[in-house]
Amino acid sequence: MSNVKKRKRRTRNLVLLSVSVGIIVMGIWFSGTNAYKFMKGYLLFKTGDANTIMTSTATPELKDTQKKKAELYPDRPKIGDMMGSLSIPKIDANLPIYHGTDEDELEKGVGHFAGSVLPGERDNSVLSGHRDTVFRKLGDVGKGDLLEVTTEAGTFTYKVRKVRIVDADDRTVIVPTPRPTLTVSTCYPFDYIGDAPERYILVADLIGSKE
């Protein structure tokens, strides 16, 4: 066999090997990251029953989280619903909380970001409000101060762990957290005229609850 034919064969074998390795790697990645979502979406499309899928395929930890959520809030609020109140003893404030953060909700009180968990649940519950209405004095609240949220599930007391000032488009405000957390956000600086370029953030940990 000529050297040219040998080189062509080696090149073809190398290409086939590379393609095979690529397929294996993609398969491992897919099974590790997207297989569950794909299966859930497909079965939901075929059966229309997400609860059955979640129950049959969820890990024990996920099932426990779902059970706790169901126990706290058997009925989830809808956008626009008044879902509770936020009390801030430091500034003697007691403010209504509405589910959603559109202008309709923020005009009436504090808005609860619908993509976050409800107060008292494990993970990050995010509240927002206007600096020139409900949160005029929020700048006086800092590390160590208490925030109390009352909903149909009870009263949840949080202690401010950290104060952050971030850019207006900083999405780390709504990142998931491993423990029950309350994040309260408003525009900053407080005396800014027009659309403020930054956000004043209080990050608080759950330290107690009562029904």
Automatic annotation (TrEMBL):
Q: Which InterPro entries match?
A: Sortase (IPR005754), Sortase_D (IPR053525), Sortase_D_1 (IPR041999), Sortase_dom-sf (IPR023365)
Asked whether the UniProt record includes rRNA-binding among its keywords, one would answer no
Does Transmembrane helix appear among the keywords?
Answer: yes
Write out the entry's keywords from A to Z. Hydrolase, Membrane, Transmembrane, Transmembrane helix
Q: Which residues cross the membrane?
A: 12-30
One Pfam family linked to the record = Sortase
Name under which the protein is recorded? Class D sortase
Q: Which organism is it from?
A: Mesobacillus jeotgali
Name the lineage.
Bacteria, Bacillati, Bacillota, Bacilli, Bacillales
